[in-house]
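Rotation project, supervised by the postdoc (A.L.). Task for the rotation student: set up a whole-complex structure prediction and record inputs and outputs verbatim in this book. Inputs entered:
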Amino acid sequence: MSDPENFRRETRAWLEANCPPEMRRPMTSEEDTFWGGRNTKFSSEPQRVWFERMRDKGWTVPHWPKEYGGGGLDAEETKIVRQEMAAIGARQPLVSFGISMLGPALLKYGTEAQKKEHLPKIAAGLIRWCQGYSEPNAGSDLASLQTRAESDGDDFIINGQKIWTSYANYADWIFCLVRTDPAAKKHDGISFILFDMASKGVSTKPILLISGRSPFCETFFDNVRVPKVNVVGTINRGWDVAKYLLQHERAMISGMGERGVGRPLGQLAADSVGTDDQGRLEDPMLRGQIATFEIDEAALACAAERAVDLAKAGQAHPAFSSAMKYYGTELNKRRYEILMSAGGIDALEWESERSKAGARPRAWLRTKANSIEGGTSEVMLGIVAKRILDLPGA
Amino acid sequence: MVRDGAPDSARALPGERLLTMRVSTEIHQPERFQSNEHRNPSMALVLNEEQSMLRDSARGLIGDKAPVSHLRQLRDSKDATGFSRELWKAFAEMGFSGLLVPENFGGSGLGCVEAGVVMEEIGRTLMPSPFLSTAVLAASALSRGGSAAQKSEHLPNIADGSLLAALAIDEGTKHRPLQTKMQAVRSGNGFRLNGAKALVVDGHTAGLLIVAARTAGAAGERDGLTLFLVDPKSKGVEAERTAMVDSHNAARITFDNVDVDADGVLGEIDQGYQLLEGVLNIGRGAVASEMVGLSEEVFGRTVNYLKERKQFGKLIGEFQALQHRAAHLYVEIEITRAAVLKALQTLDGDFENAGAAVAVAKARAGSTATLAVQEGVQMHGGMGMTDQFDIGFFMKRARVCQELFGDSNFHADLLARMKSY
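Outputs recorded:
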């Protein structure tokens, strides 16, 4: 690569010139996230400008090859872009499961035709993807999934049901695990397949959660016809793709524990519970909890940085994302317990305008899924015990 | 797995080789460990090649000459020194005692990351050594705050291993450097010191004491603290070696009308706190590294035990209750390791702004080590409670490391103050 300090200077200058001030403020609502897709619209003009500038530079996915719509940056340059964005508080211009989950799997397992077809549309925010993994009877034991794909000439005919499909009702395409060989052992008869959610026979039904919101859906497949060329990797070897993708999903979810939401926790708490004459939080136990939380949060950010550097040095353990997923999600739950405690009575309001329609308690409840989705904390600990610690019978 | 490689095959050779090289060629510092004053702030959060080599040679020497049985033997024989002077000589020959001493004073001019690398290896075997007191704390205090004359008088002696020095800070039950009460009153051409210090690491063998005292202001105030270089043989200095829970070395030292002349002031009069805080931060980073090594060693031994011990006809490592606890501990240690390395790199690259990273590292290292030794003893069952078994030594040392230069609560409070809440 070019001189890193030079690249850093250029990056800093470019971001300074191109990131609108509104896009450097902490996100306050779900509308602040731009997901892309066929039916998407921007919630503000600065959001559109920021997205388009980053897209044109290939920096919605800076580390992807240029031919697929990425920025063609190496790991060091990508890290610099990320650091410089963080330094000015720049928002992600595009958030999508295509970027964080499907993209890495396609880059590793996809055919050239699949990469050319799908990756540029992900990078440009044209297609929004959802993930068809869990089923009513296949949660932690994901490999016991039952959705069937039966061969019919050049196509598969898919029948079955998925659950906890995040934003399936907004998604354009799905990457889906289906059973293509019911006779094989459970891990061996699964394929990883892509199809359009507009296909005949696909329907979705949002699930109302304890937060009063519906980020997840039930997704039904009734004789959905999908060409066999849409299988990623080898037919019946989809579990390899699924596991690889899960590592990226877990890395993404663990990141939620690292990000500060708006003002620092200590300041937020000081605003609501008040301070003593030395400027310390009025509630000394809460103050201790916050400080301990912030220590763990800072340490986790170091571990995330180190994980990237270890990967670059070829020293990373492939199961380490499970460790990070476990810790990051438990930490994010702690963050929201503290936010609820700091918010006190005010954080109990569910509908008022004053409370932004109960934004905080709803977000608090949403975090409870963090340690379930993408593999429960217990499953993560089991993976660490087995694959990293090599404990017997794990 | 955290314990990479079989200990015996991995450790002995590189250290021996370096030792031989140093002795035979009489080079004053190992050539391959170069000074790195211009460290890149965005550097990778992993050890570089030179640092990995340093780790291997430290592991070689320490693992070979000072396994836990070395500490046990010193304890059982009630050794008057409490560490091996011969081994300290070997440390000096390897260039470790002068690791933080600038090159023009006979040292290696290396940084906190390198000091942490050595401390981590010390933590693995609990080797009692003046490395922390002399090579880390005193060397830092002198090279950061010393006059030209003070540096040339003491630093070369630290580098060649002939001078042992100790930092005398704590007074009350807890580490509260701002609360220093010890008095230094102007008298004649210098100052007269009165007061008492506790937990002076290696204070019983030191040939030089670095003492914090009040030349102005009241306990709790930042201004008015001054650091002094005191000869422990001065009239009025009494050192009582305190036998410690961890069989490591410390002393209580009283100062009864001890006269120090003006040359004995280290740094600026009344403005010693900034220097002290910087030195303490280096010490905190070093002790955090020791705790990482200690935690990882305890964890490695514990996981091995889970793979050997059978109950109910099964290896106890097959039980999910223990698997999940072991996995949790692994995650805690890995996260702490990253935070500690970050703190050390920040001390080397951006010293003035390293406070928050150091507080995070010391707090994390303390709580992680506490968890590691508790799980270690618990999972070893009754064996973990026996003196014959080494695991208890780790528990005892972890307790002392927690307390040294501020425990987890102290650093959490510090962080909250830095962030104004």
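Student's summary: Chain A touches chain B through 52 residues (CB under 8 Å).
Supervisor addendum: The first strand of chain A starts at residue 129 and ends at 132.
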